[in-house]
What we know:
The chain is an alpha+beta fold and about 140 residues long. The protein has helices at about 1-15, 20-35, 55-60, 65-75, and strands spanning about 85-95, 105-115, 115-130, 140-145. The protein folds into two domains: about 1-70, no CATH class; about 80-145, no CATH class.
Amino acid sequence: MIIEKLKQFRQQIYEDLGKARDALFELMDALVLTPKASSIAELSLCPVFRRRWSSIYESLKDSNLDFSKLQKHYIAQIPSNQQIVLVGDHTSWSRPDAVTLQERTYEHAGGGIGGGKPITVGQGYSSLAWIPEEKGSWALPLSHC
Length: 145
């Protein structure tokens, strides 16, 4: 039963990937199976990625993902008959010298900038994930922006 549910979930995700779905799907599998990849090109060495390394970049360039559709599939995996645990994280990436980077904002930082203030100029990344088990390290990312 669990295998059938996983197959159905994977098929739904595959159908909603749009252009370059075959390469994107293999890239997702390679990412799961190669957690210590030091570069995106290194994912092309994973046996489940049956294409040339340049296909990674082409598939990412050609894709036009509908994140709301994909997120609905993820959220559908959360059981409705139990209390859920969601966790959030915000990470700042200090970029004080990148003056042409339009998305820079003021971010909290441990070291901070001049005057010892706990702020920096850079980019912030936030994630929200569902934690399905009390023990273990598995999480389902729901949002990352």
